[in-house]
């Protein structure tokens, strides 16, 4: 049977919040019997867009991670729910409002912070994958409100066989956010390194001028890569983890090298003057 998946491209997300607002529009003030009670106007972010700034001026960037419930195959909430959380045949993870009533600790079971406790109705709530829409023949877009409204194409809903998804993951290098948790999310990300990894960037100057086509080599922490500086003399190695790196620059025979340590952030080295 075809299954629920989402692919979200971090490089295409501009934090417009259309997906967040579409989710609010669909669920605030609207009960969907058999699926979920209404979402409160404030305090719950079923589509939670996180922000990460990397580097230092003037070589810095920002990435946004749009994060709904990950609809995990190995969901910690399912285990904590005592029968109140179940996975549909299409893979969407649902909270049964009646069975979950009064279970405040359910919200703490999600390592992604995707479950919220509604004090007013005494029940845990979260993204439903817009299952009520996917089940309705009248909703012709045949996809969740959030992906339907995304103006940049950053968010893509897929209803495909697991084998086809496995191939897509392989071919497109899709990644789970915090894969180390072993939760096996159904929401996969493209360009996740923009949110989770670091970069080393700098400019190369020779006698005070930007030097194009210098060879820059980076080694360390399992990485070995070479780049040429661009017309501004700049280079940028992205997708790096924490660790100690050696950087070597060769600008038409003029050479420099240095050690760079990354710990929790990207680094702008400024200018390397030769
Ligand atoms: S609608 Fe698309 S571009 Fe806008 S915040 Fe959501 S995922 Fe990002
Ligand atoms: S993201 Fe959290 S709430 Fe959603 S299925 Fe996984 S553990 Fe459960
Ligand atoms: S799939 Fe539906 S419920 Fe989930 S975040 Fe998107 S709009 Fe909200």
Give a written overview of the molecule.
This protein is of the alpha+beta class. The chain has 2 domains: 3-194, Alpha-Beta Plaits (2-Layer Sandwich); 197-273, Sandwich (Immunoglobulin-like), CATH 2.60.40. It is built from 7 helices and 17 strands. The protein has helices spanning 18-27, 76-80, 97-100, 131-134, 145-149, 162-172, 193-196, and strands spanning 3-9, 48-56, 59-67, 85-87, 93-95, 116-118, 123-125, 155-160, 187-190, 198-206, 209-210, 215-220, 223-228, 234-240, 243-251, 254-262, 267-273. Strands 10, 11, 14 and 17 form a 4-stranded mixed sheet that branches. A 4-stranded antiparallel sheet has the order 13-12-15-16, with no helix packed on it. Strands 8-1-9 form a 3-stranded mixed sheet. The longest helix is centred in the middle third of the chain and has 11 residues, at 162-172. The relative contact order is 0.17. Bound molecules: iron/sulfur cluster (3 copies). Residues 69-72, 75-77, 93, 110, 112, 114-115, 126, 183 line the site of one iron/sulfur cluster.
Set out the fold topology:
Layout: E1 3-9, H1 18-27, E2 48-56, E3 59-67, H2 76-80, E4 85-87, E5 93-95, H3 97-100, E6 116-118, E7 123-125, H4 131-134, H5 145-149, E8 155-160, H6 162-172, E9 187-190, H7 193-196, E10 198-206, E11 209-210, E12 215-220, E13 223-228, E14 234-240, E15 243-251, E16 254-262, E17 267-273
This protein binds iron/sulfur cluster (3 copies).
């Amino acid at each position: 049977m075809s299954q629920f998946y989402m692919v979200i491209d971090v490089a295409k997300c501009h934090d417009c919040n259309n997906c967040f607002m579409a989710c609010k529009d669909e669920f605030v003030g609207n009960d969907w019997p058999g699926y979920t009670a209404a979402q409160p106007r404030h305090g719950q972010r079923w589509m939670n867009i996180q922000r990460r700034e990397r580097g230092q001026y003037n070589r810095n960037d920002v990435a946004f991670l749009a994060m709904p419930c990950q609809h995990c195959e190995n969901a910690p909430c399912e285990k904590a729910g005592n029968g109140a959380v179940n996975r549909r045949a299409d893979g969407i993870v649902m909270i049964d409002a009646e069975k979950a009533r009064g279970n405040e600790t359910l919200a703490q079971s999600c390592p992604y912070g995707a479950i919220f406790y509604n004090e007013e109705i005494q029940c845990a709530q979260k993204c439903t994958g817009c299952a009520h829409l996917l089940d309705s023949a009248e909703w012709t877009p045949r996809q969740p409100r959030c992906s339907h409204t995304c103006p940049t194409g950053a968010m893509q809903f897929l209803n495909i066989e697991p084998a086809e998804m496995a191939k897509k993951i392989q071919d497109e290098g899709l990644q789970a956010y915090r894969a180390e948790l072993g939760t096996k999310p159904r929401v996969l990300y493209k360009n996740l390194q923009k949110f989770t990894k670091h970069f080393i960037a700098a400019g190369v100057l020779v006698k005070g001028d930007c030097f194009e086509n210098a060879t820059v080599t980076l080694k360390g922490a399992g990485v070995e890569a070479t780049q040429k500086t661009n017309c501004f003399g700049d280079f940028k190695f992205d997708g790096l983890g924490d660790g100690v790196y050696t950087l070597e620059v060769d600008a038409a025979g003029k050479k420099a090298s240095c050690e760079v340590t990354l710990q929790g952030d990207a680094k702008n080295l400024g200018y390397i003057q030769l």
